[in-house]
Amino acid sequence: MDEKRLVRSSKMLSRILRHEPGLAGVVLDASGWVRVDELLAGLAARGRPLTRAELDHVVATNNKRRFGYSPDGLSIRANQGHTVAVDLGLTATVPPPVLYHGTADRHLAAIFREGLRPMARQDVHLSADTGTATGVGARHGRPVVLTVNAAAMTAAGHEFRLSENGVWLTDAVPPRYLSRRS
């Protein structure tokens, strides 16, 4: 699979498995899973054929590990980032004392006024390292990294969950737990 097709396929799978399963004529179950054979048949029926080998390649080489197979390999889902209602079954986990969030500087006033909100997604996404946060922020403009006082949030009763691909998830981050990383 050439690089261009790999990127196109990964973006298409993200859209289907996180946001619009109907584009492939599939329905995600309550946990976000869809059978691989149904997904591949749906894609083929809509003029976007993908083989199982190509799907395996997309899953294995995605640098953000966005997708995962069920233990039996018969189903696939996105690891996080859904705008459709799914329950990934992630349990509350104590995070590192500090987490990070990447954004663009044009969003700072609203963030420091309202905090971090999931917007269209189910959760706020946080990272354990500044490099990842910087990369996320750069997708939206000039990147700014915010520090999240996860220890204080945990002490105050906020819950965090860790996705299969290492993204920390929480419902929201109130402004009092945020600071701009210098």
TrEMBL record:
GO BP annotations of the record are: tRNA splicing, via endonucleolytic cleavage and ligation
Entry keywords, A to Z: NAD, Transferase
Q: What Gene Ontology terms describe what this protein does at the molecular function level?
A: NAD+ poly-ADP-ribosyltransferase activity; tRNA 2'-phosphotransferase activity
- The EC code for this enzyme is 2.7.1.-
Among Pfam families, the record links this protein to: PTS_2-RNA (PF01885)
What's its job?
Removes the 2'-phosphate from RNA via an intermediate in which the phosphate is ADP-ribosylated by NAD followed by a presumed transesterification to release the RNA and generate ADP-ribose 1''-2''-cyclic phosphate (APPR>P). May function as an ADP-ribosylase.
PANTHER family in the record: PUTATIVE PHOSPHOTRANSFERASE, TRNA 2'-PHOSPHOTRANSFERASE 1
Family listed:
Belongs to the KptA/TPT1 family.
Instruction: Report what the protein is called.
Output: Probable RNA 2'-phosphotransferase
